[in-house]
Amino acid sequence: MRADRLVALVLLLRQRGRMTAAQLAEELEVSPRTVLRDVEALAVAGVTIEAERGRYGGFTIDPGLRTELTGLTQDEALALLAAGTRHGAGAFGLGSALASAMLKVLDALPPPRREAAAGARRRLLLDPEVDLLSRRVPREDLPDAVVAAVRRAVLDGRRLSLLHAAPGGEPRRRTVDPVGLVTVRDLGYLLALRDGEDRTYRLSRIREATVLDEPARRAADVDLEREWRERSARFRAGDGQLAVRLLLHPRRREELLDTALAVLHEEPGPPQDPERQLLEVTFQDLRHAEWALWQLGTDAVALTPDALRDALRERAAAFAAAYARPRPD
């Protein structure tokens, strides 16, 4: 909305001092021409923004134009700035709202605390785009309109019409009663009821969402943490999953946990292999288990089931055979 953008423009100038139209356009994700129109609109509203021409020119604003939020300590403000990561908010379609809120938090602090918090924030980095090995961290692409509709239905207590596509299936239309939204490792989920039965939907698999006029048929109150814990336990105990026993080097444990559905048992490895751990974990199916263990190389050795060992052995033999052939000139 334009009103939010005008506020953000004022706050940017308050916190950063002189900025060019190009710099403001980049921050606000608009064109420089739109920035110029916004500056004119602020001038009409009585907000004086001075324009300086030339190579080192730009826009500045009266530093006295501000309010103070003296109740926040420096550490409290820093906690808000650090906790508000773009990825977590993005899972609920609140990325732009988060950016605007962070600007307001900074601007509301008294000058010494504002400068200290802004400086400290630059020394804290949460959830970078790549890890230490330059591997890009996957992020879900969530349509703004879909997430906004889902969020509104959850908060307003309205029924929701969804076009949802299960993995490997065709999209199907469903009418649900939304219960709450959960984000886990930057993945967003809608907890809902369908015909009175618990349902959990990945937000990235919802193609369309329409808020209905009917009130949601749900309890007046909810313990969302308990609800998530119970649904997660039921999912891990579901039918059709594959239990795998394996030996694993501890340095790859987190990678395994990122792909396995659940860890059923864990203990030290056998005396003949003391550096490894013995685990029993579950996967969706044989294909899922084969893919996950192949990523871990020789740091993971499947013990059971035999079908998984056979699949990994065949894959390794095919890999070795490809490199046994003479290199083409």
TrEMBL record:
Checking InterPro entries in the record gives: CBASS_pafABC_assoc_protein, DeoR_HTH, HTH_11, WCX_dom, WH-like_DNA-bd_sf, WH_DNA-bd_sf, WYL_dom
Q: Which GO terms describe its molecular function?
A: DNA binding; DNA-binding transcription factor activity
Q: Which Pfam families match?
A: HTH_11 (PF08279), WCX (PF25583), WYL (PF13280)
Start and end residues of each HTH deoR-type domain: 2-61
Q: Which UniProt keywords apply?
A: DNA-binding, Transcription, Transcription regulation
| Domain of life, per lineage | Bacteria
Name recorded for this polypeptide: DNA-binding transcriptional regulator
Instruction: Identify the species of origin.
Output: Paraconexibacter algicola
Instruction: Specify the taxonomic lineage.
Output: Bacteria, Bacillati, Actinomycetota, Thermoleophilia, Solirubrobacterales
